[in-house]
Amino acid sequence: MSSITTAIELLPLGLRHHVSAEVGEALVRAGEAARTAGRAELTAGDLLDALTVVMGSAAPPARAPSPARVTPYRDGPYLLRGRFELTDQDGEPIPCARSTVALCRCGRSQIRPFCDGTHKLVGFRAESGAEADAPPEASYPPADSV
Q1: Domains of the chain in sequence order
Q2: To bridge 102 with a disulfide, which of 40, 59, 77, 126 should be the other Cys (CB 3.0-4.6 Å)?
Q3: Do 128 and 72 contact (CB within 8 A), yes or no?
């Protein structure tokens, strides 16, 4: 058994099939890229970059980083996806090795700023979108004044 086949069997993909050496090498490279970036999971970008290298290009194409996306979930947390950096109000980094995180919106989590599911126990209620009587965006206070 080659080292690439062994590496594939260690991935949590449930692969029990033989795959080509190129595909195996791309998966291994993508996993290494994610670990180097300090992430616990692969992104589509990791896989595309690895496949580009394996299939013949000397270097992956330069791509603009995908913007972070925040999605408020009804009666639940904010889901933050994409490339982001979390910091506290003093600018100190908050360690986060995932490319998708749930941020507490109810204020009761024991692991703030991350969600621990406490919103379900305390009956937190909030819509997924903006509140119906929310003022126009232009009237929001500047972020540095909060």
Answers
A1: 3-54 (no CATH), 64-131 (3.40.5.90)
A2: 77
A3: yes
- One-letter amino acid of 141: P
CA-to-CA dists, residue 145 to 89, 119, 140, 142, angstroms:
12, 27, 10, 6
* pLDDT tens digit at each of 146 positions of the chain: 444 444 444 445 544 455 566 666 777 777 777 667 666 666 666 666 666 666 666 555 566 666 788 999 999 999 998 888 889 999 999 988 788 899 999 999 999 999 999 999 999 999 888 777 777 766 666 766 65
- Let me know: does 71 contact 46? Beta carbons within 8 Å: no
Interatomic CA distance for residues 5 and 18, integer angstroms: 7
Q: Is the dihedral of CA 45, 47, 50, 54 positive or negative?
A: negative
Closest CA to 10 of 26, 23, 27: 27
Whole-angstrom CA distances from 19 to 1, 10, 45, 66, 101 are 12, 14, 21, 30, 32
Residue type, 83: R
